[in-house]
Write a structure and sequence with these properties.
Chain A: This is (2Fe-2S)-binding protein. The structure holds two protein chains of two kinds. Chain A has five helices and five strands; from the N terminus they run ββαβββαααα. By secondary structure, chain A is of the alpha+beta class. In chain A, helix 2 crosses helix 5. The longest helix of chain A has 14 residues. In chain B, helix 12 packs antiparallel against helix 13 and helix 18 packs across helix 19. Classes of the chains: A alpha+beta, B alpha+beta.
Chain lengths: 157, 773
């Protein structure tokens, strides 16, 4: 078995140290080593967005990042989206708009949408659809997801 | 009375409708917060002490005899705890059982879990390893040596039925309407539905259109790969945690495959990340049990990769479909013939039977014949996919119907209304309809702002199509516990894929005249309630909802009876209205009554149902598209769905079913297909190359819920989950014709296929706009 290495990082705002094998992806380390199961593996090669996290302010597929690469960097996962025990407005609007059916893609969509709104607080429908094109949902046809994101943007405006 | 309502943003029916207090509202689902915060536990999220990880080795060949398997090097790798092959499976009997959604031969079921003598498709499981981590399990699997004798692959209907075709299954004989053939064959079965006089009907026809179509294999495309964890305990008790549409279907299949009594197996359903019919068959569950047993009773988790999901699970059939329809001079259908050749995959069981029922179901036809052929090919064993088989045949029928209407000079909606099926008409197999809403869905589209609007521009076109799905009743079991504070714990076993905990809880709340928030709905395991069929056939809100309604009636009845004793009045003297019990001078609000009636004895209720009189669903849809003449790419400009939903319990989730089914239908129509090389190897087993629609590929999808209440359900519920996927391919094909003048005879209408068809056509595209008259 490969020798484990220690990685120091900032995870959802907390200083964190964890052990991982060099070949483990960030997704695998989050789920199996750190117990953060909210990031999902839908494809393992960057095509579905279910594992999306925000790395130093940039949206990434955590299945395409090796765990040791986050040394000294800052990662936000779905578990870090709610603040002070309150649901994030995106989480609230996803519930109100029934934007999820099975829910497996939902964490990735919420992380992606947060990243969009951080960059562009007033997106058009096209902006939302373009940004979320890296996240696959097979249940909803996207209608209610796009409406929820636009609703959050409008509520914040 | 039918009613219609346009979708909105949540304001609609905020206080219910038609006297309902809960039904028709849009509350937050019980499992919602866990799912938006990442806390919900899906199959791959299961963790426990000592957990081992499995990996399945799969055949690189589409068709091969397995001469031998040598696992010794894998077993010797440090960290490996168990290796299994088909030799570890009990010998399966050659007998037919119905263990979920349709009958299956147990030998085929077992062979599909781990190949015995033969690998029958690229990706067929041949061995599996359990190790201390998934990487070592994979490394070990790659050390397993399998000696294959490669055979020529049989990939299509035409290949399989050719005179000199290689035979997939040595013992297969054609079942032709109950008569079993003598010869080896790849044709598993043939059937025919007929009525009236077909020849006379065609002889009387003023106009006949006769066309043949091809559709390709597509996958359900759920975002959660299959995964299961099994613990074979030292005392012989087995537990499986898995993502499934039916925990009892898993129990039934695993117990048959492993030859264990149901009393020794508990199946715990996790949250499920999509199914669409593809999570009824078991794949990794029996493998995880075998590995756990062999690894010294440690728990083993097996997660499929996306490539394995595409290569080895669930696709639905590719097909060849011939449709011939004749009409009289007034446009009335005089005769119709459909011939359906469906690829079952490696083992018999394509959805051709259901497809035959769908084929001509929206139309009233006196003279018809529908022939069905179930054919084995070297592709994965096909599984159910949302209205199984329906989209293939509806693409063909709706294309022919559109061509007939055009040649008659009729509006395509008026053609469908003139020929529309209604109460007392018959489905192709003879089943007589009760009250149905097909014509109402066509009228809703015809009268919609979308259909009445004009569509201008070269290479733009509009198309419509209709579709049918029979839905299902099935068996459901549920219990309800009344808590002393008036809340109710609702325990049901229908796994919740799209918000059914909410739609079932809402029916219980309505039946008890209490607030939705007072019902705590949960999905329980196979040891907790009695048998429950799969979440499939659009049955859950209908049948498990019926069980919930019964629970509510029972609890209220028992509360009345106990209050009558308390108040010393007759049981029939206690009334319950607006949340208050009363009799004589006494009255008590529900919440206080819940405590009072349980001071001496607790109160719970159970209900089991098996409704036979489920109501079918119809949908008619309208789409505007634009074709890029340079690339052949189709852009969906606008899409409107009208669907007979019976009664929408939670309108947001009904709209969601409609929109989601159409999105899948659009993918099927314009992009999705399995691509194989000459050796039968799947070339596009990734979500980059098997390209499903993204948010950028779709517009908002408009929904018109036509409510023709189903007479056999207390709230008028019909299944709403499946019929929506039936019309899109036909509607888009008809729009493509109106945009380009090309009638497509195959799916997908991908850029390459469409360009080829446009280049083959000689005339210039017409700027034809139906509905704009």
């Amino acid at each position: 078995m490969a020798k484990k290495i220690a990685v120091e990082t900032t995870l959802n705002g907390e200083e964190t140290v964890f052990l991982c094998e060099p070949r483990q992806t960030l997704l695998e380390a989050l789920r199996d080593n750190l117990g953060l199961i909210g990031s999902k593996e839908g494809c393992g090669n960057g095509n579905c967005g279910a594992c999306n996290v925000i790395l130093d302010g940039v949206l990434v597929n955590s299945c395409l990042v090796l765990a040791p690469e986050i040394e000294g960097r800052s990662v936000v996962t779905i578990e870090g989206i709610a603040e002070d025990g309150e649901l994030h407005p995106l989480q609230q609007k996803f519930l109100e708009h029934a934007s999820l059916q099975c829910g497996i893609c939902t964490p990735g969509f919420i992380v992606s949408a947060k990243s969009l709104l951080d960059d562009n607080p007033d997106p058009s429908e096209h902006d939302v659809r373009l940004w979320l094109a890296g996240n696959l949902c097979r249940c909803t046809g996207y209608d209610k997801i796009v409406r929820a994101v636009l609703d959050v943007a409008e509520s914040d405006a | 009375m039918a009613g219609t309502k346009q979708n909105g943003t949540g304001k609609l029916a905020a206080n219910g409708q038609n006297g309902y207090k809960v039904i028709g509202t849009r509350p937050v689902r019980p499992d919602g917060v866990d799912k938006v915060t990442g806390r919900a536990v899906y199959a791959a999220d299961v963790q426990m002490t000592g957990l081992l990880h499995g990996f399945v080795l799969r055949s690189p060949h589409a068709h091969a005899n397995i001469r031998s398997i040598d696992t010794s090097k894998a077993e010797a790798l440090p960290g490996v705890r168990a290796v299994v092959t088909a030799a570890d499976l009990p010998v399966a009997e050659d007998k037919i059982e119905d263990l979920g959604e349709g009958a299956i031969n147990l030998k085929y079921l077992s062979d599909n879990i781990l190949a015995h003598e033969k690998a029958l498709y690229h990706g067929h499981a041949v061995a599996a390893v359990a190790a201390v981590n998934p990487h070592i399990a994979q490394e070990a699997a790659e050390l397993i040596e399998v000696d294959y004798e490669v055979l020529p692959p049989v990939m299509t209907v035409d290949d399989a039925l050719a005179g000199d075709a290689p035979i997939l299954l040595d013992t297969l004989r054609t079942d032709s309407m109950g008569e079993i053939g003598a010869e080896q064959t790849n044709l598993a079965s043939f059937f025919r539905h007929q009525r009236g006089d077909l020849d006379a009907g065609f002889a009387d026809a003023h106009l006949v259109v006769d066309r043949t179509y091809r559709t390709e294999t597509v996958h359900q495309g759920y975002i959660e790969p299959h995964a299961a964890t099994a613990l074979y305990s030292a005392d012989g008790q087995i537990t499986i945690w898995t993502s499934t549409q039916g925990s009892f279907a898993v129990r039934g299949q695993v117990c048959e495959i492993l030859q264990i009594p149901v009393s020794r197996l508990k199946v715990v359903p996790t949250e499920i990340g999509g199914g669409f019919g593809g999570k009824i068959n078991v794949y990794v569950e029996p493998v995880a049990v075998l590995l756990s047993q062999k690894a010294g009773h440690e728990p083993v988790k097996v997660i499929m990769s996306r490539a394995d999901v595409l290569a080895a699970t669930g696709p639905t059939s590719g097909s060849n479909v011939r449709v011939k329809i004749g009409v009289d001079a007034n446009g009335k259908i005089s005769a119709a013939l459909a011939e359906l050749y469906y690829e079952a995959g490696a083992y018999p069981g394509s959805p051709v039977g259901a497809a035959a029922n769908v084929s001509l179901a929206p139309y009233a036809i006196d003279n018809l014949q529908v022939d069905g052929y179930d054919i084995v090919v070297n592709r994965p064993r096909s599984a159910a996919y949302r209205a199984p088989g329906g989209t293939n045949v509806a693409f063909a029928v709706e294309s022919v119907v559109d061509e007939l209407a055009e040649k008659l000079g009729m509006d395509p909606a008026e053609f469908r209304i003139l020929n529309g099926a209604k109460e007392n008409d018959r489905r192709p197999d003879g089943l007589q309809y009760a009250r149905i809403g097909q014509i109402e869905t066509v009228e809703a589209i015809r009268d919609s702002e979308h259909y009445q609007s004009s569509l201008e521009g070269k290479y733009r076109g509009r198309g419509i199509a209709s579709g049918y799905w029979n839905n299902w009743g099935g068996q459901s079991s549920a219990t309800a516990v009344l808590n002393p504070d008036g809340t109710v714990n609702l325990n049901e076993a229908s796994t919740d894929i799209g918000g059914t905990r909410a739609s079932i809880a809402m029916q219980l709340a309505e039946a008890m005249d209490i607030e939705y928030e007072m019902v705590k709905a949960r999905v329980v395991d196979t040891d907790t309630v009695s048998y429950n069929d799969v979440t499939g056939g659009s049955r859950t809100t209908f049948a498990t909802g019926l069980a919930a309604y019964n629970l509510g009636q029972q609890l209220i009845k028992e509360m009345k009876s106990r209050l009558a004793d308390q108040w010393d009045v007759g049981a029939g003297d206690v009334s319950y209205e607006d949340g208050t019990f009363s009799a004589g001078g006494e009255s008590l609000p529900f919440v206080e009554a819940a405590g009072l009636v349980q001071r001496e004895e607790p109160l719970m209720a159970s209900s089991t149902v098996h409704p036979q009189d489920f109501g079918p669903g119809f949908s008619t849809q309208c789409v505007d598209i634009e074709v890029d003449p340079e690339t052949g790419k189709i852009t969906i400009l606008r899409y409107t769905i009208a669907q007979d939903v019976g009664k929408a319990i939670h309108p947001s989730y009904v709209e969601g079913q409609m929109q989601g089914g159409v999105a899948q239908g659009i993918g099927w129509a314009i992009n999705e297909e399995y691509i194989y090389d000459d050796e039968g190897r799947l070339l596009n087993a990734s979500l980059l190359d098997y390209r499903m629609p993204t948010a950028l590929d779709l517009p908002m999808i408009e929904t018109i819920m036509v409510e023709v209440p189903h007479p056999a359900h207390p709230y008028g519920v019909r299944g709403v989950g499946e019929v929506n996927i039936v019309p899109p391919a036909g509607a888009i094909a008809n729009a493509v014709y109106n945009a380009t003048g090309v009638r497509m005879d195959k799916l997908p209408i991908s850029p390459a296929n469409l360009l080829e068809a446009m280049w083959a056509r000689e005339t210039e595209p017409a700027e034809l706009v139906p509905g704009d008259d």
